[in-house]
UniProtKB/TrEMBL annotation:
Transmembrane segments: 21-46, 66-87, 94-113, 119-141
Protein name, per record: Membrane protein
Keyword annotations from UniProtKB, A to Z: Membrane, Transmembrane, Transmembrane helix
UniProt keyword Membrane, yes or no: yes
InterPro entries recorded: DUF6069
Cleaved signal peptide residues: none
Record organism: Rhodococcus pyridinivorans KG-16
Pfam families: DUF6069
Length: 145
């Protein structure tokens, strides 16, 4: 009987940590965007307008605002965290705390704006989605190859 040694790495994942980090960041951003757009659609169906008054002018927060505020901060934050995690894996824990607290702390701005109730609920849930996606994706980055 012969024994054959096999590699423990998956052939479906990129082999380098940098490539793996890029895949995790991209997947996290796409996931958050899709979930946030679903929440926006549910908010619209529930009667939300996603409009608020700013300096006497009615402003719309969606769909462009949803896309912009889901993609840009998440992409920048996760990319920086991914690069720093390549240098020091322990940075992922710090980034998880900061990355979860920031979107949760900014919920106050949504609640204090004069959005209607369906819009406020949907936008608040979008903040929670971002926090969860940050924690989960950084946990994936933290895992050693």
């Amino acid at each position: 009987m012969s024994v054959t040694e096999t590699s423990g790495t998956s052939t479906s994942l990129p082999q380098s940590r940098l490539a793996r980090s890029a895949v995790v960041v991209a997947a996290a951003v796409v996931t958050a965007l899709v979930v946030d757009l679903v929440l926006w659609a549910v908010g619209l169906v529930a009667g939300g307008s996603f409009e608020h008054t700013d300096a006497g002018e009615v402003m719309s927060a969606a769909p462009g605002g949803v896309v912009l505020m889901s993609v840009v901060p998440l992409t920048v934050g996760l990319a920086v965290a991914a690069l720093l995690t390549l240098w020091w894996n322990g940075f992922a824990r710090i980034a998880q705390v900061v990355g979860a607290l920031l979107p949760l702390a900014t919920i106050q701005g949504t609640i204090s704006a004069d959005f209607d109730t369906p819009s406020t609920v949907a936008l608040t849930l979008m903040h929670v989605v971002i926090a969860v996606v940050v924690v989960v994706s950084l946990e994936m980055l933290r895992a050693r190859d």
